[in-house]
Every structure is written in structure tokens, then in C-alpha cells.
Amino acid sequence: MKSVWVVVPLFNEAQVITGVIKELKAEFSHVVCIDDGSSDNSAVLAEKAGARVLRHPLNLGQGAALQTGFDFVASQRGASHVVTFDADGQHRVKDAVDMVELAQRKRISVIYGSRFLDKRTKPGIKKRIVLQVAALMTRAITGLRLTDAHNGLRVLSMEAIGKVQLEQNGMSHASEIVHQLAKSKLSWKEFPVEVALHRLLQTKRTITSQLNQYSYRSSGEVGEAHA
User: Fold this and answer.
1) N or C: which end of the chain has fewer CB within 10 A?
2) What mean pLDDT, rounded, does the chain reach?
3) How open is the CA angle 166-183-133, to the nearest 5 degrees?
4) Cα torsion for 153, 1, 14, 218, to the nearest 10°?
5) How far apart are CA 118 and CA 121, in angstroms?
6) pLDDT of residue 117
């Protein structure tokens, strides 16, 4: 998918970003991470894994990171679509590939991922209620009958990218994207995706456990050296 760019807002995800980028690079030629003032080595790891990295010197928020990514891709010759993809490992690359293929095959300008169109994702009751209320509010304001207005996995054509100018730097950017694209009257569709929080938590727990074990062994060796 040489004409498709994956835009990944990045903030302190050193534990998982290497795996996320490597999975993306197996399917997409172009992956750009916008490091939003991380205090860890997320940016370095993303770059080593094969991503192009743009840096914010300060943490400006996910909305600002996405807009930086959109502006960058808009300057790239031959770009046809943008995939927005979270850095924390919760999205499936296969879902992103399928969404791009649908957008290209049917010439749909915007594909929104939805965790509520199948039963793979099982959010907690409170999370489900919050997201469904948000979807209802978005429907009332924009007229778009979305089931999941705050899913970070999306596919946008370059025409759609030209209609987006995010001013909400924080998490409210998700509603802002939907509102601006609704005004554009471009074609859109929802697509069933999995939000794999269990995989994210398992990965982070494994890495934390390994670090704790290493720290314990290291402290033991230091203790023996001073004995």
C-alpha cells in the first residue's frame, strides 16, 4: 500500500511502540509517528522500528499530533489515504488493511472503525455507556448515525484530509473530526473493528514483569559485589 500513510500519535509508549510499528510496516510502506513530547524513548524506538518520526517539543495533545501528521502527509506526493492508528497496541493492523481496501474499492472518502458492529470487543459497562452516549450526541449534532464516534482507527481520503483542520488539541478532537467531515458531505461508512485492550494489557504486564525481574537480578548482583 504505497500510496497510504499511517499517522500514529505517540506519547510515552516505549513498552509497545516497537511491536506496533513493525506490524504496521509489514503492511504499509509509510508510517509516520508524531512524538508529542514523550519523556521516554518512544521516538527513538519508533524510528528504529522503521517509522518516520516528527517531534513536538512539548506535549500538545492527540488532536495537535494528528493535525501535524495530516499536514505532513498532505505535502507528500502520491499520497491517497491516511490511516489514523493509536500507538498503544489496541488496534489490529488487519482491520486497518481491510478498511483501506474497502475505501479504495468502493471509493468511500471516510471509513470509521466501530467496536460495536461485532462482538469481538467487550468494553466494561461504564465504558460502553459513555461511548454510546457520545455516539448519540454526535448523531444529534451531525446527523451521522455512528455507533462509535470515538474510535481512533479511521481511514480518510486526501480529499477528506483537506476538510479537517483540528483546533481541539486534546481528546475532544475525535468529535471535532466527525463534525468537520459531516459538514463536508463526503461519503462515509462504518467498519467493524476490534479494540484489543486485553492484548495491550497483556503486553505491558509482560514487559513490566520482565523489567522487574531484571531489576531484582541486578540488585542481587550488586549486593553480592558489595558483600
Assistant:
1) C
2) 85
3) 75
4) 140
5) 8
6) 81
Q: What is the pLDDT of residue 70?
A: 98
Residue in the block written with cell 505517540 = 10
Q: Which residues pair with 52 in a beta bridge?
A: 32
Distance, CA of 33 to CA of 89 (rounded, Å) = 14
Decide: 11 and 42 in contact? Cβ < 8 Å: yes
By CB neighbour count within 10 A (0-12 exposed, 13-18 middle, 19+ buried), where does 211 fall? exposed
* Contact yes or no for 109/80 (Cβ under 8 A): no
Contacts of 171 (CB under 8 A, 6+ apart): 61, 62, 63
Spatial CA neighbour of 198 closest among 90, 111, 100, 93: 90
- Counted residue by residue, the chain has a size of 227
Q: What is the pTM of this model?
A: 0.82
